[in-house]
Design brief:
- Pfam families: MRM3-like_sub_bind, SpoU_methylase.
- Belongs to the class IV-like SAM-binding methyltransferase superfamily. RNA methyltransferase TrmH family.
- One of its GO terms (biological process) is methylation.
- One of its GO terms (molecular function) is methyltransferase activity.
- By secondary structure, the chain is an alpha/beta fold.
- The chain is built from ten helices and ten strands.
- It has a six-stranded parallel sheet. A four-stranded mixed sheet has the order 1-4-2-3.
- Helix 6 runs parallel beside helix 10.
- It is elongated and about 60 Å long.
- The termini are far apart.
């Protein structure tokens, strides 16, 4: 049985202000917890069901572990049901933004945590050095975002910045790409995976201040009647063109 003090602490981490105050976040579900335990991120506390406990024996040294019923575990977290595990992890120390050539993904007001998590997962798939989020994006460390990364939260650095200010500070020779209905057909270009690819929210696109920082506008041609593409789908198509062989 979890103590009232511990339960209160875990419940507090459902909210961003307490995640920032305590420097900790929640990781829910067996796959994500196993990814956490095999990463360099610090695990502060672990809650598991008896069935799941057998999969992570021996337990990590110096990490408090409590074995709970699935009902108790579910009450602690945010998932509708949780029959495996929940962990409290320490927020990682922010690493310096990379200065070596490569392609960074930047996100402008992507407020849906599911989309944000999927975009972080895409960055992991394509081996990007990290993701830069505007300070108006969803919280990268919310339980829904972490779950949507499918474990990629352990491998992809994330920075939160005033995006127009950060983009304006980049070297003038660094290309800044963005999606635009009036941009160049991405399928007709030979793109190199260097610079910054900026993606905006599905409903509003890029904010004017961010749009002014673009040096190259890219268009994904379509043939049907759909009004728009999901931001994560658009990012996947564009990223694939950056890494296309030949």
């Amino acid at each position: 049985m979890v103590s009232k003090a511990v339960a209160k602490y875990v419940h507090a981490l459902h909210q961003k202000k307490y995640r920032l105050r305590h420097g900790a976040f929640l990781v829910e579900g067996g796959k994500s917890v196993l990814e956490l335990l095999s990463s360099t991120l610090l695990t502060e506390r672990l809650f598991v069901t008896a069935e799941f406990a057998a999969k992570i024996s021996p337990f990590p040294p110096q990490v408090p572990v409590e074995v709970l019923s699935a009902e108790e575990l579910t009450r602690l977290g945010t998932l509708a049901t949780n029959q495996t595990a929940l962990a409290v992890a320490r927020l990682p120390q922010e690493s310096p933004l990379p200065t070596v050539p490569g392609l960074l993904l930047a996100l402008d007001e992507v407020r849906d945590p599911g989309n944000l998590g999927t975009l972080i997962r895409l960055a992991d798939w394509y081996g990007l050095p990290g993701v830069v989020c505007s300070d108006t994006c969803a919280d990268p460390w919310s339980p829904k975002t972490v779950a949507a990364t499918m474990g990629s939260f352990t491998r992809v650095p994330v920075w939160q910045r005033d995006l127009p200010q950060w983009l304006a500070s980049l070297p003038p020779e660094m290309p800044v790409y963005g999606a635009d209905l009036h941009g160049d057909n991405v399928h007709h270009l030979r793109l190199q995976p260097q610079g910054v690819l900026v993606m905006g929210s599905e409903s509003h696109g890029l904010t004017p201040a961010v749009e002014q920082c673009l040096t190259k506008r890219l268009h994904i041609p379509g043939r049907g009647q759909a009004e728009s593409l999901n931001v994560a789908i658009s990012a996947a198509i564009l990223l694939d063109n950056f890494f296309r062989a030949g």
